[in-house]
Each structure stands twice: as structure tokens, then as C-alpha cells.
Backbone:
């Protein structure tokens, strides 16, 4: 027997789960196929593991910056709830590798905050809880096995043999998308030759909601403020250096991070062990086909130095969900999907261009480029209108 849905979302990570939730209470019957649904969030009684204080629950090392526009939208979905521990960012300090500096302050642009920092697992869990309560959504915890492409409907076979038919398949299955491969959609890949080393720390001094970023000879180090006297770091550096950092004893790794951050927040105490994520820019050659759309990391990935990966994914979801509100057209109508892809192109292309360009600009050892990038940074700092324009783009 075949189960019929209007829309089947393959992958229930942040992008896929958010899309499903945004389609709650629509006319569409929706399924989300996710073999690894989020685990329950740790109870407050847990913790006390790798440097954690008992009574506060563990801290996820996957911590992201979310734009205020996306947070406001997640609030309308009911997913940015009290379980999502978060820290508003009021200011950002960026430091070059030869005296360049750039500061952004929310107040200067008349904004309450520039971003919010929160753990991935808690937001994922809140999204998932929301969609469990929806009448028109079924979540299926099975892996995919095969897909057959039809003229009006596609058929998906799951591990174990269950068959699903749908007018629209959504690939939200991450950077190595299974659906993208099944559809033979090509991929442009640029290996940044960087690994993002992430870890959480407690700080001696309060961060006052300030995020820091240092462009260094060996990569980019970011301090993202977490609730309380805690930060999450992303140190994007060459694979060799990342391996060497991860291999250090905890106290040595901690003092390297404090030193690279110029002891801005005093002494650090490690809360989670370091983890490394290889960084690549990817872009699928097509985001849409008849009855098929790729969103989030399945469609595009970027260097995390601008904290934009899942923000792009959520902006995909916001636009696609808005387009799917029109129930007069079939969900997989190619005109609808092409209009969606066209409208997403500028945002994704500009973020890929800027993050890739910055990474390259700061990776060069040439004296002239070093001078240029640091001077450019400081000059930008003097241009209030330019900084306000940059902030207004980043908050969407
Ligand atoms: C070091 C680092 C720091 C980052 N910091 C930021 C930041 O500050 N701000 C920001 O916006 N972004 C950031 N990002 C990017 C962000 O992590 C990603 O953009 C985001 O997690 C992508 O979400 P997604 O749901 O599209 O894909 P994923 O999170 O990869 O989810 C894909 C889902 O699909 C499922 N799946 C896979 N294959 C199948 C299949 N065959 N069938 C069914 N399901 C399947 C998987 O189980 C998974 O749950 C960062 C990334 C890194 C590496």
C-alpha cells in the first residue's frame, strides 16, 4: 500500500523541522522523514560532566548565531520558547591581524540587538515538539531507500519497505543530501581548507552581550556570548592546526583560546571538549525541479565566519512556506518553485560571495593585502552609514 502526502520533507534537521512546522494548519498533508530525531533535552539535574556545573543541564557545543528576523519568525511558530536558552548580542568587536578594527553596536543602528546566540539541540527539540502536535503532519523515523520520479507524483521507498507518494519532495537532508544525489543534481564545491573547532567555556569576566572575532594569521576565532558567564568559540583554521588544537590537553587548549582572544574575558574554564567540522562552500546546480526543492545545507553551505548558514536555511523556509500557502497550485508546480528559487538567489549568492571573499582576503600572507584588509576594516569602522547598512542586512 502507498501512503499519499502532498509534501514529503526528507530530513528533519533545523531546516526541515522548521518547514514542517511552518506548514502546520495548512491544507497540505505533510510527512517528515528523519531517521535521527532530536533527543530529549537534558534535565536541569544533569550536567557536571566535562567541566559543567551540576544543576544546569549539559551545554551543546553546536551553538549558532540567529538573526533577529529569524528569531521573530521562530517565535510566531512557537519554537523559540523558554527551553531555548539564548543570549542577545548587543555589540560586535572585530579585530584584524595588523591593527584593523571594526565595531558594531545595536544602539547605533537603533536596534535592540544584532543577533541571538543559542544551542542547536534545544531549538531543534522545540521545533520537533511543535510538529508532533500538528494534525496534518506525520513524522517518520525511518531512513530512505529509493525514489522513483513520476510526471505528477514521486514515490519514495523507506527502509523496511513503506512507500510514500507526494507531489512535492523537499530535500532538507543536509550538506551531503541523499535526495540531491538521487536527482543527479550537480554540486559546485569549494573546499575552504578550514576546519571549524568549536567548544564552550566559562569566563572570568562578564561578556556583556558582546561577540568578538579575531582575523588571525592562522584563521578566524570567534567568541559568541552564551547566557551567564559563558561563551562558545568557533576557531576556523587549517586542518593541521585544528587537529593539533584538538589533541592538546584541556588546560593547554584553554590557554591557547584565551591567549588568541587576547584575554578579553579574563581566564577561561572549559565546559565542552573541542569538536571539529570541515568547512566547504557548496551550491547545488539546481535548487528546484518539477516536484522537487532543495533547502538549507542541501542547497547551499557557507563559511561560518559570518554566522549565516542556518539563517539562510530559515530564510529559504520562510519564503517556501509563504509560497506554499497558495493552495490553488499543486505543491510541486514548477512555476511556483522557480519563482521561489529566483527570489532566494540574491541572498544566498551575496552571503557566499562575502564570506568566501573575506576568508580568502585574510588567508593571504601578502603584505599589500594585509595592509589593505586592515585599512579597509578600520575605514569601514569610520563609515556610520555603511555599518548601519551592514547591520540592517544581517538582522533579516
Ligand atoms: C562550526 C560551525 C558553526 C556554525 N555556526 C553557524 C552560525 O553561527 N549561524 C548559522 O546560521 N549557521 C551556522 N552554521 C551552519 C549550520 O550549522 C547549518 O547551516 C545548519 O545546521 C544546517 O541545517 P539543515 O537542517 O539544513 O541541515 P542538517 O543540520 O545537516 O540536517 C539534515 C538532516 O537530514 C537528515 N538526513 C540526512 N540524510 C537523510 C536521508 N537520506 N533521509 C532522511 N533524513 C536524512 C539528518 O539526519 C539531519 O537531521 C555553522 C556550521 C558549522 C560547521
Residues:
Amino acid at each position: 500500500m502507498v501512503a499519499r502526502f502532498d509534501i514529503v520533507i526528507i530530513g528533519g534537521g533545523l531546516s526541515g523541522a522548521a518547514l514542517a512546522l511552518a506548514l502546520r494548519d495548512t491544507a497540505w498533508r505533510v510527512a517528515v522523514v528523519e531517521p535521527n530525531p532530536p533527543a530529549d533535552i537534558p534535565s536541569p539535574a544533569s550536567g557536571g560532566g566535562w567541566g559543567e556545573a551540576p544543576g544546569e543541564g549539559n551545554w551543546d557545543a553546536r551553538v549558532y548565531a540567529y538573526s533577529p528576523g529569524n528569531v521573530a519568525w521562530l517565535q510566531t511558530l512557537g519554537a523559540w520558547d523558554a527551553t531555548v536558552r539564548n543570549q542577545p548580542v548587543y555589540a560586535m568587536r572585530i579585530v584584524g591581524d595588523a591593527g584593523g578594527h571594526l565595531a558594531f553596536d545595536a544602539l547605533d543602528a537603533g536596534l535592540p540587538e544584532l543577533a541571538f546566540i543559542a544551542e542547536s539541540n534545544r531549538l531543534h527539540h522545540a521545533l520537533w515538539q511543535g510538529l508532533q502536535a500538528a494534525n496534518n503532519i506525520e513524522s517518520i523515523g525511518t531512513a530512505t531507500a529509493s525514489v522513483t520520479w513520476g510526471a505528477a507524483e514521486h514515490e519514495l521507498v523507506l527502509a523496511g519497505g513503506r512507500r510514500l507518494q507526494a507531489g512535492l519532495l523537499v530535500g532538507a537532508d543536509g550538506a551531503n543530501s541523499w535526495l540531491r544525489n538521487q536527482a543527479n543534481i550537480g554540486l559546485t564545491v569549494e573546499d575552504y581548507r578550514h576546519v571549524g573547532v568549536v567548544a564552550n567555556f566559562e569566563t572570568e569576566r562578564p561578556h556583556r552581550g558582546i561577540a568578538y572575532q579575531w582575523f588571525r594569521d592562522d584563521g578566524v576565532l570567534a567568541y559568541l556570548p552564551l547566557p551567564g558567564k559563558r561563551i562558545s568559540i568557533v576557531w576556523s583554521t587549517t586542518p593541521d592546526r585544528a587537529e593539533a588544537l584538538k589533541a592538546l590537553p584541556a588546560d593547554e587548549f584553554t590557554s591557547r583560546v584565551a591567549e588568541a582572544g587576547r584575554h578579553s574575558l579574563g581566564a577561561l574554564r572549559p565546559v565542552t571538549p573541542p569538536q571539529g567540522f570541515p568547512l566547504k562552500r557548496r551550491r547545488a546546480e539546481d535548487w528546484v525541479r518539477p516536484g522537487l526543492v532543495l533547502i538549507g545545507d542541501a542547497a547551499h553551505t557557507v563559511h561560518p565566519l559570518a554566522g549565516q548558514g542556518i539563517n539562510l536555511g530559515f530564510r529559504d523556509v520562510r519564503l517556501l512556506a509563504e509560497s506554499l500557502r497558495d493552495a490553488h497550485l499543486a505543491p510541486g508546480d514548477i512555476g511556483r518553485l522557480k519563482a521561489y528559487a529566483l527570489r532566494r538567489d540574491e541572498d544566498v549568492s551575496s552571503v557566499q560571495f562575502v564570506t568566501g571573499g573575506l576568508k580568502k582576503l585574510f588567508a593571504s600572507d601578502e603584505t599589500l593585502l594585509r595592509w589593505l584588509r586592515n585599512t579597509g576594516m578600520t575605514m569601514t569602522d569610520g563609515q556610520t552609514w555603511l555599518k548601519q547598512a551592514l547591520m540592517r542586512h544581517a538582522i533579516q
In short: Residues 10-16, 33-36, 64-65, 143-144, 172-175, 178, 196, 198, 234, 277, 296-297, 304, 307-311, 313 surround flavin-adenine dinucleotide (CB under 6 Å). The radius of gyration is 22 Å.
